[in-house]
Structure formats: structure tokens, C-alpha cells
Amino acid sequence: MSAAGRLRYLFGVHIAGRAALRFERLRSEHKMRSRESWRHRHLERPLDVSPRLKELISRHYLTGRYANGARKVAWVTSGAPIEVLTALNIFPIYPENHGAVCGIRRTAEEYCKHAEAAGYSRDLCSYARTDIGSILSGKTPVGRLPRPDVLICCTNICQTVLYWYQVLAHHFGVPLVIIDTPFLYREAPSHAVAFVKNQIEDSIPVLERIAGRSLSHGRLRDVTRMSRDACELWLRIVESGRMKPSPITAFDQFIHLAPIVEMRGHRYTVDYYASMLRELNTRVGRGMGALKDERKRLLWDNLPIWFRVRWLGDLLAERGVSLVASTYTNAWAELADMIDPERPLDSCASVYLHPILNRGTGHKLETMKRMIDYYEVDGVLLHSDRSCKPYSIGQLPQRESLSSEAGVPALLIEADHNDPRSFSEEQVRNRLDAFLEVLGV
After folding, report:
1. pLDDT tens digits for 273-288?
2. Sequence-separated (6 or more) residues with CB below 8 Å from residue 174
3. Residue 10, pLDDT score
């Protein structure tokens, strides 16, 4: 780290950058207060906290842009134990979240083609192709991604990340830390928790050398406490979808999910979700739903179709259908009660063992059945994601089980979370139209 790098970081992030982002947020908030700013026929106006979300995400990528030379940087998988990194002041970048931004901004297809031209198969996860293509082309919609000093790969979401991060380690020539999580067919045995905890403990000296400081266990407890607080607030936010009408849709959750993924362990994340929850509670008190006329309620399974979130949300809203819950956004909330700030490494091992993708298909089916009852949904949309095979496996028998055992119809939609070449708008629209006719809307 250099004095010049620290000065660039101080000015670019904390002085000029934050001032510009705050000005943009205040301008957006002022515009939202105008009655003329929102005239959607079927959706109520966006949440008032939305400009704060944009500010948080922009500040995160702005920090990354100036991080090299001022802070150490880790590129991490979405299911990695972030608390240790945050406690060591190592700045995290999530290639999957960056991939989602590329999907929303409609640049993912271009980056995927760059990766494929370099020999990477189109059968690979579109997040991996987006990320690799972005690196090879030098392009990104967020300005610039910082070069990593270390890579953290946790296998609790899929095995693809292991090979993906080996490619990154070879490209950047930096250390790769792997946290291997045994797959769970039932609850985690004690030896599996100990196995993961030992790996996290073994990673700490490596990360301390990279950070140039020792891990403060007091700081780790504080970070873990803020992670728990943020996850508990996120749980209450997604559970507000059980209200009738629902004050929030899963499409809203897909967007507001970003801080809980890449900004856990920070006070500003806790404050943001506390403000969001207060606003949702106010809407519930007023009987105000996310839709102006909620007639039917659905559950979503799998990742979003990032490049068609707005289109699909509008299509359902036109028919009075509210997507009130999602297994994907619920996955970032359901493990909140496992987080124990007084036993940060033990609870870290348990939490990162139990994500929905590190458990059997029977667990996901039972989760969906519980959510069907809890949110009182009328049907389920199963996104058969060409790119995310671990999330999509078992959906065909799950669709039959949801109909025969849970008593609700389920529709399978074939798409890809980030690559629009694997999406047929006409086919999805036709299938949805037929499904909604079954529901009576």
C-alpha cells in the first residue's frame, strides 16, 4: 500500500465520491416525492429507501475502484465466510453480484461471448462466463473492478466455483483459499461442523499476512453481531410478504438483496434494512400493497432472470398476481438464528454449511411446502435455470409433489439467470398465460 494510493482512495471514495453519491440520492428522493414521478397502472410507487440502495451499491463499487494501493481486496463466492474478511478490513468483491449487475445492465451476453471465444463452453454457469469475459475484455458496467490480493472460494453453492476460482487464481497469480463444505443430506453432524471450522481457522493466518494485521476477536464478534442483525432484519422484510396485500414482491427483494450478500457485517447495512422494514410496516398499516390490485399470490424458486426482472414483474402485475416470496431471497434469511456473535467461528461453520444449495432436494421441497402455507400462495413458479444446475435439479418431481402434496399448481419456466440467448420471451409468456388461466386470472 502506498501514500499516493491512500490519498486517491481518501479523495475518490470519502470526499468527492461520497459527496457526489449523496447529491444523487437527495436528487432522486426529491424526484420521488413528486406525485408525477410514478404513474404505473398496476404497481404502487417504489419504496422510499430505493435511492439509498442505489447509493450503497454505487459506493461499494466506487470503493472497489480505488481500493488497490489503499486496501487489500478479496474476490469471494457468495457463500463464503465474509465476517473474517470484514474484521480484517479486507474489501470483498463478489463476482456473482457483479454478474447480476451485468445481467441487469444487459452487458452479460457480450461478456459471455468473450469467454466463449477464449474457449469456455456455453454450458458453463453464465455468472462464470460473464465474470471471465469481463476480465478478458476489460469491460464492466461498474467502471473498474479492483485486482484481487486473495481469492476465497466456498463450495457450499456448487462445484463450478472451485474450477472458476482456479482459473481466476491462475490469471491473477494470487493465493486461493478454499473452504470445502460437505454436502448435507440431513442435519450437519458435529464432525462436519468441526471440519469446516478447522478450515476457517487455517485460513486466518493466510488472511492476516495479506491484511498486514492480526485478527481482533472483539472486532470479529462485532462484525458477526452486525451480520446477525442484518440477517434478522432481512428475514422480517421477506416475511412481510405474508401480509395481504403484500407490501413487497420477490422482484423487489431480488434488487434489495445486494447489501445482505456483499455488505454483511457493517452498521450501514443494518441501518438500511431497519429503515426498509419501518417503511414496509407503515405500508402494512395503511393496507398498501406492492400491487394496486392483488388477486393471486405466487412463490418463486431459483435465481431471478436478471435481464427480465422488470418485464416479468410487469407481466404478472397486469394480471393482479403478486410474487410474494422466493426460495432464493429466503436463503439469505433462514439461517439468521444460527449466527452467534459469542461463538463466531463455530456459528460461522454451521451457517456456511447449511445454505439451501448445500442440502438435498428433499430439504428444498419441504422448504417450499412450508413457504406455501406460510405465505398462503396460490401457485409456484419454478425457474429451470440452464446455468444453475444444482438449484434446478429435482424440479420436475418437485413440481408434481407440490401439486399432489401441497395442493397448489406449479409451472416450470426454462431460462437462464444471466444469458438472454437461453430465454424465449414468447414461450415464457405463453406458458404464463396458460398457467394464470388455471389460477383464474
Report:
1. 999 999 999 999 999 9
2. 148, 149, 150, 151
3. 86
